C-alpha cells in the first residue's frame, strides 16, 4: 500500500498561485533582485507557500466552519462520483440534505457500535450510491438517523428538502416495523411479509431499509450472542430474499453470509476454511484467473476486430450458498462446481450487423477460454443458439483449473454481449420475485411493473432541463464544478464572502470562520473565490480524506498481520490523547 502523494497538492502546482508576486506584500518592495539570489528567493517563496498550505490544512481541521465545509464538500463529491449521471435538481437536493444533516449528525451521540452518527449515515448513503439510487433515496438515507433520533421531524424534511424525500423516510420507517407484524417467524409468515413489502411499499423505501440492515449486520459484534442470532434469523428469513427479489443480488448474498456467520459460526468457519483451501499465494484465485483471461482476450487479434471493449467480472460462491449445496442438496465437495465464477461482457463494434458480430465475438471468446483451460463439455450450455423461454441469452461453460497436481473445483464462465447482459438483468426480475416468495408468475410481473413505474416517476420528478451538452453526458470538468455552482448562488462565476458565510451559517458555524477561510483560499486577494481557487480547495479535501481512509486500511492490515487487539498492551494510545493530537 502506498501513501498518497503529498507532492500533488503543493500550492506551486496551482496555477493561480504562480501569478502571485514572488515576495509577500509585507516585504519592502525597494529590495532589488540581483543575479545569484534567484535560487535563494525561490526556496523562500516555496517555503512560504508550504507554510500557507499547512496553515490552510490546520484551519480546515481545527475550526468548526472549516471542518463542516470539508465534510460537506468531501461527502458530496464522493457521492456524486459514485452516482454517475446526476441532474442539477438532483445535485441541489443532495446538497441541501447534506447541509441540513451534517450539523445535526455531529450533535448526536455515538451509535451503539461505537461509530459517529455522521460516519454511519455516510456509510449508508455510499451503499445507496453504489446501487445507483436517485438523489431522493440517498437524501432519505442521510436524514434517517436524524429523524429517528428526533432531531428533526418528517414535516421539517418535507418543508426544507422536499416531499419525495419526506415520503421515502415515512415509508422506510413503516418497512422497519414489518417484522413485528407476526409473532412467529416461520417460512410461511416470512414469505407473507416479503409479499406484503413488495405489494404495499415504495420499492426505493424497501431498498433503503435493506441497505440499513446490511450496515447493521456489518457492525453487529457489540451485541450479546442471543440478539445477534435473533436479528440474523430475521435478516435470513425476510431481508436477504427480499434483496434478491428487488434485483440487488450482491446485497442479498452479503446479508445471507453475515446471517450465516452469526447463526452457525462453526459451520461458517468450516465452509470458509474449505473455500480458502483452494487458494495459492496471497492473491485470491478468482483475481488471478480474471487477469489471465482478460489479458488473453485483449491480445487476441480476431476478437479485437469484433469488439471495442471487453470486461471480466469475478466472484466466489457465497458461504451460505456453498453450505446449502453441500448439505441441502447432498453434494460431495468435488461436486460443488461453481465455487469460482467469471463473467465476460463484450461490447461489439457498431454497425448494421452489430448483433451478429456480438454473437461471433462470444463464440471467439469461448475459443480463447478453451486455449487456457480444459473445458468440461457436459457442463456447456449455449443459450445464444437456443435462448431460454424468457429471452435469456448467454454462453455457459465450466473449465478445470487444477494445476501442478493440485485439484480445484471447476470454474464456471459466462460469456455474453453488453446488450445480452442488460436484458438478462431485466429479465430476471419476475424470476427473482417468484423465487422470493411469490408463487404466482402473473403477480410477479404485476409487481415488477409497479417497481418500474415507481422508478420512472422518481426519474421524471428529478428530471432536468435539457443540457447544452448534446450528448447529455456531463464532462469531468462539469462534475468537478458541481459544488462550486451550488455555492455560487448568484451565478457570477465566483464565490463571494456573503455566499460563503451563508453556507457556514447553514452548517451551524460562526461567520468569522468564513472570513478566515476566504483569506486562506483567496490566492489573488480579490475578496472572492474563482472556480480554480475552489478546485484547489477540493483537492486538499480529497487529500485529507485519502489519509483518513488509508489510516483505516493500515489499521486493518496491521491487526491482521500482527494479531493485535485494540486493548493489547503492545499498543496503548488513549482515545482522548489521539483525539487531541488529531485536532478533533
Automatic annotation (TrEMBL):
SUPFAM superfamilies tied to this protein: EF-hand, HD-domain/PDEase-like, Nucleotidyltransferase
Superkingdom, taxonomy of origin: Eukaryota
Any one cellular-component term (Gene Ontology): chloroplast
CDD domains: EFh, NT_Rel-Spo_like
Chief place where the protein resides: plastid
Subcellular location per the Swiss-Prot or TrEMBL entry: Plastid, Chloroplast
A single GO BP: guanosine tetraphosphate metabolic process
Keyword entries, A-Z: ATP-binding, Calcium, Chloroplast, GTP-binding, Kinase, Metal-binding, Nucleotide-binding, Plastid, Repeat, Stress response, Transferase, Transit peptide
Residues of the HD domain: 117-217
Keyword Cell cycle: no
The keyword Glycoprotein belongs to this UniProt entry's keyword annotation: no
EC number(s) recorded for this UniProt protein: 2.7.6.5
Domain EF-hand: 475-510, 512-544
Pfam family, one: HD_4
Chain segments annotated as transmembrane: none
Gene Ontology molecular-function annotations: ATP binding; calcium ion binding; GTP binding; GTP diphosphokinase activity; kinase activity
Family as reported in the entry's similarity comment: Belongs to the RelA/SpoT family.
Identification of the protein by name: GTP diphosphokinase
Amino acid at each position: 500500500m502506498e501513501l498518497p502523494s503529498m507532492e500533488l497538492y503543493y500550492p506551486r502546482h496551482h496555477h493561480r498561485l504562480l501569478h502571485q508576486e514572488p515576495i509577500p506584500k509585507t516585504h519592502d518592495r525597494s529590495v532589488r533582485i540581483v543575479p545569484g539570489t534567484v535560487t535563494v528567493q525561490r526556496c523562500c517563496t516555496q517555503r512560504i507557500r508550504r507554510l500557507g498550505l499547512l496553515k490552510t490544512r490546520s484551519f480546515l481541521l481545527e475550526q468548526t466552519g472549516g471542518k463542516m465545509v470539508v465534510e460537506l464538500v468531501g461527502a458530496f463529491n464522493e457521492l456524486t462520483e459514485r452516482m454517475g449521471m446526476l441532474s442539477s435538481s438532483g445535485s441541489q437536493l443532495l446538497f441541501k440534505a447534506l447541509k441540513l444533516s451534517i450539523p445535526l449528525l455531529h450533535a448526536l451521540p455515538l451509535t451503539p457500535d461505537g461509530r459517529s452518527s455522521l460516519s454511519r449515515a455516510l456509510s449508508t448513503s455510499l451503499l445507496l450510491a453504489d446501487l445507483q439510487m436517485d438523489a431522493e433515496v440517498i437524501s432519505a438515507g442521510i436524514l434517517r438517523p436524524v429523524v429517528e433520533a428526533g432531531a428533526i421531524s418528517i414535516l421539517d424534511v418535507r418543508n426544507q428538502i422536499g416531499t419525495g424525500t419526506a415520503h421515502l423516510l415515512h415509508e422506510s420507517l413503516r418497512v422497519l416495523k414489518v417484522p413485528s407484524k407476526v409473532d412467529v417467524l416461520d417460512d410461511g409468515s416470512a414469505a407473507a411479509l416479503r409479499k406484503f413489502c413488495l405489494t404495499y411499499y415504495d420499492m426505493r423505501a424497501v431498498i433503503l431499509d435493506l441497505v440499513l440492515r446490511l450496515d447493521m449486520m456489518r457492525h453487529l459484534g457489540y451485541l450479546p450472542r442471543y440478539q445477534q442470532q435473533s436479528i440474523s434469523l430475521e435478516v435470513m428469513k425476510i431481508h436477504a430474499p427480499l434483496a434478491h427479489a428487488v434485483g440487488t443480488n450482491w446485497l442479498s448474498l452479503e446479508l445471507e453470509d453475515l446471517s450465516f456467520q452469526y447463526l452457525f459460526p462453526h459451520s461458517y468457519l468450516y465452509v470458509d476454511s474449505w473455500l480458502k483451501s483452494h487458494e495459492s499465494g496471497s492473491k485470491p484465485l478468482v483475481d488471478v484467473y480474471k487477469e489471465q483471461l482478460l489479458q488473453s482476450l485483449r491480445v487476441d487479434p480476431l476478437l479485437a476486430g469484433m469488439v471495442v471493449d471487453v470486461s471480466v467480472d469475478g466472484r466466489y460462491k457465497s458461504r451460505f450458498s456453498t453450505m446449502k449445496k453441500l448439505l441441502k442438496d447432498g453434494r460431495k465437495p468435488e461436486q460443488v462446481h461453481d465455487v469460482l465464477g467469471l463473467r465476460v461482457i463484450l461490447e461489439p463494434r457498431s454497425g448494421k450487423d452489430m448483433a451478429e458480430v456480438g454473437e461471433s465475438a462470444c463464440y471467439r471468446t469461448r475459443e480463447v477460454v478453451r486455449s487456457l483451460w480444459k473445458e468440461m463439455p457436459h457442463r456447456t450450455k449455449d443459450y445464444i443458439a437456443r435462448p431460454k423461454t424468457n429471452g435469456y441469452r448467454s454462453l455457459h461453460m465450466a473449465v478445470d483449473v487444477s494445476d501442478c497436481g493440485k485439484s480445484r473445483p471447476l470454474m464456471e464462465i459466462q460469456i455474453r454481449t453488453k446488450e445480452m447482459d442488460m436484458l438478462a438483468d431485466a429479465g430476471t426480475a419476475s424470476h427473482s420475485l417468484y423465487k422470493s416468495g411469490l408463487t404466482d408468475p402473473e403477480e410477479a410481473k404485476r409487481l415488477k411493473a409497479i417497481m418500474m413505474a415507481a422508478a420512472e416517476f422518481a426519474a421524471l420528478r428529478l428530471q432536468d432541463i435539457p443540457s447544452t451538452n448534446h450528448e447529455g453526458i456531463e464532462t469531468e470538468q462539469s462534475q468537478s464544478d458541481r459544488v462550486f455552482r451550488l455555492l455560487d448562488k448568484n451565478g457570477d462565476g465566483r464565490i463571494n464572502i456573503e455566499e460563503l458565510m451563508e453556507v457556514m451559517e447553514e452548517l451551524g458555524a460562526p461567520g468569522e470562520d468564513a472570513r478566515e477561510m476566504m483569506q486562506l483560499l483567496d490566492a489573488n486577494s480579490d475578496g472572492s473565490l474563482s472556480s480554480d481557487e475552489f478546485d484547489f480547495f477540493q483537492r486538499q479535501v480529497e487529500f485529507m480524506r485519502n489519509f483518513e481512509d488509508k489510516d483505516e486500511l493500515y489499521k486493518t492490515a496491521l491487526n491482521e498481520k500482527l494479531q493485535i487487539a485494540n486493548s493489547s498492551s503492545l499498543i496503548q494510545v488513549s482515545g482522548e490523547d489521539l483525539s487531541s493530537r488529531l485536532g478533533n
